[in-house]
Design brief:
With 170 residues, this protein is α+β, with helices and mostly antiparallel strands. The chain has 2 domains: 117 residues, no CATH class; 41 residues, no CATH class. Helix content is 15%, strand content 31%. The protein has 2 helices and 10 strands. It has a 5-stranded antiparallel sheet with strand order 1-4-5-6-7, with helices on one face. Strands 8-9-10 form a 3-stranded antiparallel sheet, with no helix packed on it. A two-stranded antiparallel sheet has the order 2-3. The chain is globular. 24% of the residues are buried. The structure holds zinc ion. Zinc ion binds next to loops.
C-alpha cells in the first residue's frame, strides 16, 4: 500500500509519463525558456539565473500554454528533497512563458500528486479566459463552444463587435 500522505520521490521519466496522459501536446521548455519570472511590486519580471528544474508546456493555443514546474532537478533527474518546492503550474504566454495569472497553483508531492496534477490542469483550462484580455480590443477573452461541432475555442467577449478567436488544442 502506498502511504497517501507520505512524500513521493519521482524521476523525470515518471513525471513525463503523467504529462503525456494529460495531453499529447507536451513540450519540454528548451534553453530559450531557461529563465524564470518572479513578482516585483505586483508585476512579473525576469528572475536572475536559470531554472534548475525541468519545466514543460502543455500547449493550449498559439497564445497561451500551461507551464508546469516539475520539481525534478536538472542533472540529477530526481525530485527535490522533502520540504523544498512542490510541483507548480501557471497559465503562461506561449511567446515568453510569462505568467498570465497572478500566482502559481501548487501541487504537493504526496501519494495523490498524479491525480491532483491532472485535476489542477483541468481547472486551469476551465478557467482559461479569466483575467485575459483580447489583443485587439482589450475586452475579456472567454472560453466558448462551437455549436456545430462542440469544439472549444477562445473568443472575444465583445463578439460580434470584435471577432477575435483562437484555437484551443488540449
Ligand atoms: Zn476583442
Amino acid at each position: 500500500m502506498v502511504n497517501k500522505r507520505k512524500y513521493q520521490e519521482f524521476s523525470k521519466d515518471e513525471f513525463e509519463k503523467v504529462l503525456w496522459e494529460i495531453s499529447p501536446v507536451v513540450e519540454f521548455f528548451g534553453d530559450f525558456y531557461n529563465f524564470d519570472w518572479q513578482k516585483d511590486k505586483g508585476e512579473w519580471v525576469k528572475a536572475p539565473g536559470m531554472i534548475n528544474e525541468y519545466c514543460y508546456f502543455l500547449a493550449l493555443n498559439s497564445d497561451v500554454c500551461i507551464k508546469v514546474y516539475s520539481s525534478v532537478k536538472k542533472i540529477v533527474d530526481l525530485s527535490r528533497p522533502s520540504g523544498e518546492d512542490a510541483i507548480r503550474i501557471v497559465l503562461a504566454s506561449t511567446a515568453d512563458a510569462k505568467p498570465v495569472r497572478g500566482k502559481f497553483t501548487i501541487i504537493k508531492r504526496t501519494g495523490t500528486w498524479r491525480r491532483n496534477l491532472k485535476l489542477r490542469v483541468s481547472e486551469a483550462i476551465g478557467s482559461l479566459g479569466e483575467n485575459m484580455e483580447c489583443p485587439r480590443c482589450k475586452n475579456r477573452i472567454l472560453l466558448k463552444r462551437n455549436s456545430i461541432d462542440n469544439s472549444q475555442f477562445l473568443g472575444c467577449s465583445s463578439f460580434p463587435k470584435c471577432d477575435y478567436k483562437r484555437k484551443f488544442i488540449l
